[in-house]
Amino acid sequence: xxxxxxxxxxxxxxVGTFYKKIEDYCKITDHVVVVNNGDSLLKLSxxxxxxxxxxxxxxxxAQNVGVNFLxxxxxxxxxxxxxxxxxxxxxxxxxxxxWRSLSERDSSLGALSPNIYDRNLKRELSISKLxxxxxxxxxxxxxxxxxxxxxxxxxxxxxxxTSIFQEVGGNDAWMFIDWVDFKFDLDLxxxxxxVYTTKRVIINHSVGKGVRHRFLWKVLNVSNHSxxxxxxxxxxxxxFLRKNGKRFPQxxxxxxxxxxxxxxxxxxxxxxxxxxxxILKGISDGRRAR
Length: 290
Known about the structure:
The chain is an alpha/beta fold. It contains eight helices and 13 strands. Strands 1, 2, 3, 4, 5, 6, 9, 10 and 11 form a nine-stranded mixed sheet that branches. Helix 6 (228-244) packs antiparallel against helix 7. It is globular and about 50 Å long. The mean pLDDT is 92.
């Protein structure tokens, strides 16, 4: 089996559950890296590599640091995981097997993501797919075949090569969080790589504290993220569109729709005034790339 590493970005996780998860990962590979954005994880350093960033530096920078460390160790493959992602120990072998199978058909394979089941919403999440004139939302269970080409997945569970990650410049650390993985996916595609999602492998994940609500004829999957996330979602969405709208004209409708839909979440979330202030600040700073 090819050597691979696992990078988990931590921000004050529930300690007992998190430590058990890391112990399980360490039975599968010797290259488990926890990049810590929160309080000390000193005890964990006895069983794996812990890189403490001395405070919350954002998921974008944390993943960059983790991948660069593995690249220095000459580890070719890397899995990017969130601290709350749940998966079985066969996951890594299954994903590497899918990579091998897909790369035989497409030598430009640059990243592979699993299908995602949201345990709060109790349903499969849709995946974004880049098409010639638009970005379409698709459920993997609805497609023919086992995989979907040129998807734009979230980073949790993503498999890529350390060399490819570095070749495209990794993440934009300034973005901190939100739209970070989306930008990385499009950077891969711009560089000539293919991004696939497979429905043969599934992870158990949660996007915020998702709850479904009905707004008129529309169903909203309200994420209930912390109010500070509103700022980054709007700032980075606008910044990303301004930087990449000409290269990918499909982004305009997709991002505008995402920002509008997110604004409806406020109807069902607490701290409404705080969220509105964060949104307005994000819009202002996004326009000025500040």
